[in-house]
Amino acid sequence: MRYREFWALVEEVFGAAYGRTLASDQVIGALGDRTAAEAIEDGFEPRTVWHALCDALEVPEERRWGADPHRAAPPRG
Q1: Can you give the pLDDT at residue 67?
Q2: Which residues of the chain have pLDDT under 70?
Q3: Which bin fits 8, alpha (ψ -120 to 50), beta or left (φ > 0)?
Q4: CA pseudo-torsion sign 39, 18, 54, 27
């Protein structure tokens, strides 16, 4: 997963404005008490951040990959 794919999924799954707010404000224990945006800035792998964000917000597997039925889910890092 690339950074642009991470941000595209944030917007697709959570909505453009709300997704960016979540990424900036939601502190996630699995990321060392960082927000998703901080973890990305600190060099965390985008797929690791994506899985941690979805886990923290209890997003069901079937909703994690947006509307594209052909999008492959990145393996957990």
Answers
A1: 79
A2: 72-75, 77
A3: alpha
A4: positive
What global pTM score does this model have? Answer: 0.87
The C-alpha atoms of residue 50 and residue 35 are separated, in whole angstroms, by 11
- 24 near 33, Cβ under 8 Å? no
- In whole angstroms, what is the distance from residue 70 CA to residue 56 CA? 25
Please provide the average confidence, as pLDDT, over all residues in the chain.
91
Give the start-to-end residue ranges of the domains of the chain.
3-62
What are the tokens at 75? 């393996």
Q: What are the backbone dihedrals phi and psi of residue 31, each rounded to the nearest 5 degrees, phi first? A: -105, 25
DSSP string, the chain: --HHHHHHHHHHHH-HHHHHHHHHH-EEGGGTSEEHHHHHHTT--HHHHHHHHHHHTT--GGGTT-S-TTPPPPPP-
